[in-house]
């Protein structure tokens, strides 16, 4: 009976599958991806994204292997070179990847490292030769290999040169010895597969330099060189040399070498700031098998800057080591504040936010068997790091303050000022933004809101001036598009506290319109619009207003930027007319593409060629070969457009051009905002002079 029922069930299942047109879900439906297939099938699982961030992650993965050799004391010279055709070449003078035959797999260890997931020399602790490392999963080199059309590794080791080449992760031949050498180290070539990466193979030189400069601070005593040889054909023949710099190519290059380590990094971040105290705090000590290295200095600013690293991997989401640091910092400052009498009995204790205001700190821990959350290692999860960091830093910082009383008093007074300002700001916030306003119940009168209440389809255009506000209100799609005009330039909030900010009507209107509130009650889930579009004029004042708005959003609404909700509108520079034909040009290049370089141009807002004249002119010009005539209007501001023009060019989702605001390097973004919007005039002048050639000047 059981067998008969089973047979009937199978029969009925097959009939059901056939009737629905789908294949039966049975054992044959289960797929097993072999080798490196999982990486190509789901690359985002291994490198986070297939956009520019994931593309550059390939360089970090190969570089990290070289850096781990330096961390172990086996290497002190690393070179990264960009080559023609999208290739990257990474070299170190470490021990070289082992090339011998593995006893279990009977394959060369080099082939295993490059073609097998979870194969590497970083699992066995000190027995493997790595006490600490950034690579833990053994997937770095093999993932890069899998996502590359071509790769090649050349190993100098034990007197011999060994190499192996790969195509999409698969070896083209066995590892072979190709010569003799007196050197030790590894040379890795790879070219990413453009079918994997959505933005193509476009290396960002500034991004690479910034990341590797940071690494040079973290591995003190190691030279790191970056070479841009993308336009140099000879660079592709670099196999004849160990370091590409030996060829003496006249190409852009940068070299970093720092003996000061984290002290030097804090000095670099604070170069455009006014220091509150003279001496930079620094500690490098081991506790319970966790090496803790921390440097910090307070500056005359409101924004905290915390950079966290674990085994030299940057942790943008911080983690347990930062938690330990914050706990010990607040405890130490409260203790010294009370014992010194600076913090009176009538005053409440410092909070964590008070202690962090104006601090620049770099927290770096190194430990075996480290635990990260995710392959991209954005957050440290190792519990033991918290206690070790808190103990080492707490003891060392207390000693620093006792030994440097002038520095200690300056720091505690700075934190006391933050405490008083916090209380004043809270009182101002309570009086300026009532509970109803914070929840978006009392919207500003200037706001022309949209009809839909669904944030996912709602857009807020923040426009410059009442004139542009009037045109955009008439030209918008009322169902989904809201308009908030701003009158003139908003307050520069770079050095303004919350109470002063909320006294500004313009800023208060924007805060209420967004719906998220601000400060300690900020809630990203209450954002009323999932597209916040900054639309300012295409002139110097428009650029200034845009910068002021971005400063406000970066300092106080950072999750809104990180969530991808902020956009910059790109209105056209020119309206071009010939009879009834109309074109809009967003750049000078587009203008010349439309009219041609030899065209006769009538630059007048009202200039227009009647349709009958156009036909006559075309016929006459065809015979005489004279250039055509065009009427061109140069837009200086959004207010010069009527409602229909503004809709066609800037607001219509089908035709407009929007640029999404992203923060790719928070430390660099922070530094640029300090320079542009802070009090250091000399640094701002130097920045403008250095970057003047990049500006688009409308004469």
Describe it for me?
The chain is an alpha+beta fold and 699 residues long. It folds into five domains: 40-256, Histidine kinase-like ATPase, C-terminal domain (Heat Shock Protein 90); 262-429, 2-Layer Sandwich (Ribosomal Protein S5, domain 2), CATH 3.30.230.10; 444-565, Rossmann fold (3-Layer(aba) Sandwich), CATH 3.40.50.670; 574-634, no CATH class; 673-699, no CATH class. The chain has 23 helices and 23 strands. Strands 1, 2, 3, 4, 5, 6, 7, 8 and 9 form a nine-stranded mixed sheet that branches. It has a five-stranded mixed sheet with strand order 10-11-14-12-13, with helices on both faces. A five-stranded mixed sheet has the order 16-15-17-18-23, with helices on both faces. Helix 4 runs antiparallel to helix 6, helix 9 (320-340) crosses helix 12 (405-432) and helix 11 packs across helix 12 (405-432). It is globular. The N and C termini lie far apart (93 Å). 39% of the residues are buried. The model is unreliable at 1-34, 121-128 and 432-441 (pLDDT under 50).
